[in-house]
Structure formats: structure tokens, C-alpha cells
Write a structure and sequence with these properties.
Layout: E1 7-13, H1 20-31, E2 34-37, H2 39-52, H3 59-67, E3 71-75, E4 81-85, E5 88-89, H4 97-106, H5 110-123, E6 127-133, H6 136-140, E7 146-151, H7 154-167, H8 174-190, E8 203-206, H9 212-220
Parallel strand pairs: 1-6, 1-7, 2-6, 7-8
Antiparallel strand pairs: 3-4, 4-5
Helix pairs in contact: 1-9, 2-3, 2-4, 3-5, 7-8
This protein binds 2'-deoxycytidine-5'-monophosphate.
The site of 2'-deoxycytidine-5'-monophosphate has 14 residues, from helix 2, helix 4 and helix 8.
């Protein structure tokens, strides 16, 4: 571990619906580390763009939003993590499908990513966190002590997302969710800037048919002694 770090950094990446957010939260809780969703930063820029009528190709405006972004998190007594932009609780707004698609579109802009990567690295200065996203084990913390790449089949990932949306009261068809998952994957993996991929030294775990607790235990087993 670099001398500046008392506690490890755990970097978890994977496509939408691979289970990375659930696994990262549980690993953080079990190991007493801070949980950070890097996707929330991309979603927050997207939300500000949607609210401000900024289109996905307006790079100058989007870079400006990323540069001045002040996203902070609080944790409720029941463990729910809330995201705030100033005094505005944006937790639910960040999950809106329009914000999600916008986040994936603007994530192709290298200059915008550079601002967010800098903000994300600030969180890890002293170690002690579990961060999940698309480029955490490849770009943000390539020297993380634990590097994990989670996968699952397209159908399994779409099923998880579909159930999540239905539980939230959204009437959507499975076919449309599967199509959206595939579109977002193609964009996240096919872009030039920090595409979604496993680092050569990451441990790949397929979560198909595996209980969450099994995956969490597999990640905890990778911690340095
Ligand atoms: O993990 P998520 O679904 O909250 O991410 C939303 C979008 O943000 C995703 O489609 C791609 C982008 N993203 C990214 O490019 N790099 C990250 N480290 C995290 C998210």
C-alpha cells in the first residue's frame, strides 16, 4: 500500500446491472470503508445539463458544469446514501432514466471526464474507500489495492434493472429495458475516452446465478492481509 494510505482503496467496475453498486455498498459496510458511486458525479452533471437545457454536444458548457460541480453525500440512519447539490436533495432525480441516458452520452467527453476524475481522486487521497463505476480500476485508481471487474449476462442485467424500475412504480416492458441496457453498454464500452474494460490485473467475477453475499465474500477475500 502506498505510504500515504492507511486503509485500502477498492475499485469495482462493470456494466449497468452487473451488481457493482450493491456489492460495493456491502463491501464498504463490512470493511468499514466509505462508499462512493462515481456514476453519481456523471449523473449530477447530466441532471444540471437537463435542467439547464444544455445539449449533450455542448462540450464547453458541460466541462464548465463538471468543473464547478459540488456534489456531496449524507447517510440516513437506515444506511440510505443521499446525494446533494447545494441544499437540493437530488437522490431520486439522479436515477431518472432521462438523466441516466444523458450521463452515458456526456461521459464520452474527455475534458469533462478529466474534471470528474480529479474530484474522484480527491476522495481517495487517504485511502479507505470503495468506489464503483466504469474506469475506477483502469483510470481513477489504477494502483488500488483491490481491483474487481463484475460481469453478468445482458438478460440477467436487464432483468435486475427491470425489477428495480417496477419496484419503483415504473410501467416499462422488459424488451425496452434490455434494449436500453444494450445501448448504454455499447456507448460505455465503445467510447474512446476511458472505455469500460477490465484492467489486466483486475479480478473478474461473473455474478450470474451467484448470491450477492457470495460475491461480497469473494471481494473481501482479495483484501491485503
Ligand atoms: O454507474 P451509473 O449507472 O450510475 O453511471 C451512469 C453513467 O455514467 C454511465 O452510463 C457511464 C457514466 N460513467 C462513466 O463513464 N464513468 C464512471 N466511472 C461512472 C459512470
Amino acid at each position: 500500500m502506498p505510504p500515504t494510505r492507511q486503509k485500502p482503496i477498492v475499485a469495482i467496475d462493470g456494466p449497468a446491472g452487473s451488481g457493482k453498486s450493491t456489492v460495493a455498498k456491502l463491501v464498504a459496510r463490512a470493511a468499514g470503508l466509505q462508499f462512493v458511486s462515481s456514476g453519481a458525479f456523471y449523473r449530477a452533471v447530466a441532471l444540471l445539463a437537463v435542467r439547464g437545457g444544455i445539449i449533450a454536444t455542448d462540450e464547453v458548457a458541460l466541462v464548465g458544469l463538471a468543473d464547478s460541480l459540488h456534489l456531496r453525500f449524507t447517510t440516513d440512519a437506515d444506511g440510505t446514501v443521499r446525494a446533494w447539490l447545494d441544499e437540493d436533495d437530488v437522490t431520486d432525480a439522479l436515477r431518472d432514466p432521462s438523466v441516466e441516458q444523458m450521463a452515458s452520452k456526456i461521459a464520452i467527453i474527455p475534458d469533462m471526464r478529466a474534471h470528474l476524475v480529479r474530484k474522484l481522486r480527491e476522495y481517495g487521497r487517504d485511502g479507505g474507500l470503495v468506489m464503483e463505476g466504469r474506469d475506477i480500476q483502469t483510470v481513477v485508481f489504477p494502483d488500488a489495492e483491490v481491483k474487481v471487474y463484475l460481469t453478468a449476462s445482458d438478460e440477467e442485467r436487464a432483468r435486475r434493472r427491470w425489477e428495480e424500475l417496477r419496484a419503483g412504480g415504473e410501467a416499462v416492458s422488459f424488451a425496452s429495458v434490455l434494449a436500453e441496457v444494450k445501448t448504454r453498454d455499447a456507448r460505455d464500452s465503445g467510447r474512446d475516452a476511458a472505455p469500460l474494460r477490465a484492467a489486466p490485473d483486475a479480478v473478474c467475477i461473473n455474478t450470474d446465478g451467484r448470491a450477492i453475499t457470495q460475491v461480497v465474500d469473494a471481494v473481501l477475500a482479495l483484501f491485503p492481509a
